[in-house]
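PROTEIN ENTRY
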Amino acid sequence: MQRSHHRGAVAGQRRKTTGFLIIVLILMVAHSPGFRFLVTLPSHVRLNDGETMPVPGLLPLVGVYTDGGFLQVEKVRTMAAGTGDAGGLEIRSTGTGHSTLEFRLLGILPVRRVAVDVVAPLRVMPGGQSIGVMAREKGVTVVGLPVVVGPDGQRYSPARDAGIETGDVILSIDGEPIQSEEQVSLLVRKAGAEGRPCEIVLRRGGRELTVKVTPVLDATGTNYMIGIYIRGATAGVGTLSFWDPVTGVFTALGHIITDSDTNRVVDVAEGYILPAVISAVEPGRRGQPGGKIGTFSFADPPLGKIERNTQFGIVGRLSHPVRNGIADEPVNLGMAVEVRPGPAQMLTVINGQTVQSFSIEIERVVPQAQPGDKGLVLRVTDPVLLEKTGGIIQGMSGSPILQDGRLVGVVTHVMINDPTRGYGIYAEWMAANAGLLGNEAENTTLERIMAA
């Protein structure tokens, strides 16, 4: 009985020890960079033929296996600086085609399968040029609701009383589609002179509303008004990101255009990009992002036409080739899984129209299961740029990022509390969004955004 009891106690202790080791193993895996990598790794990725995909610190707990297609697994002693890992793997492509990776815990338990399309590199022309962006909306936007003072001295608010709000877009008046501010004034005056209300169709968010507004005479007794401030076009300065030398398709900015007064997404009916000149810069400081001061003329011949306003920037087609003067030959577009922490270059303009290359550091590469505009954490290291601008400033959005001769990303945001640092988007997401990789990124079109 004593021996049986002793054997039972030993067995129980072994089970406890085994359970403890399993818990420790799970915790080690869960808190490792490799686990975080696996959790955020998309189920489907692209890899350029001849390039490698780094896999951080998974060994010896997790092994990577291929289906014998166009990939091979190679062990490396050290990963790139900034990963925080002492070892890992690299997945190397050996030809174009479709393959599968399987990650297995202890080489036995499958934990993740990833489809990999090995593709021929897309060759793009880097941008960096400052551009004027002029976009006319579908309709006109209400940006204010002033009071109308009548001939009797009374104060009226016809639009506000009818339920019109700042940020509404006027699509039509009395059945006539609206294309300009002048058209609104003419139709309001006509209805007032005829002594009847205007029937106005509005878009608010993803809905259309119809309201009736009765114009009133202003203090002069000669002009009918409904009490609205409106704007039909949006203009600003940004940066051209890259373009396809085969089709002329371009993409710029890296983020969606919104109305500066209402913060509403601009539904572009017609738009153009024009050459811009940077006359000065306001350096960024902690809490103050700074910005480029640029000018452009509507009389200048446009560089291209805007076709879409998307979550990852504007997309359109150039009217003629444009060169930046320092990277005038096509370069490979790097896929998201190929980008590594480390030195890189940013192309942008800080004076006149001259594109310059400035050194930056990609501090962090964030694996993204879904496309987003903050996949890269950046830090400006170039002493000239730091002296002139303090780091990343407004107007640099869209500036292309080159690493190892490939275009890998685009600047999107500055960190307000530290202008030397900012965020970037993977160039792959912008290329897919522009239709340059055969299909557009999901959930990025204006229609999907406005329907949300």
Notes: The domain at 124-133+233-451 is CATH 2.40.10.120 (Thrombin, subunit H). Residues 304 and 319 are 5 Å apart (CA to CA).
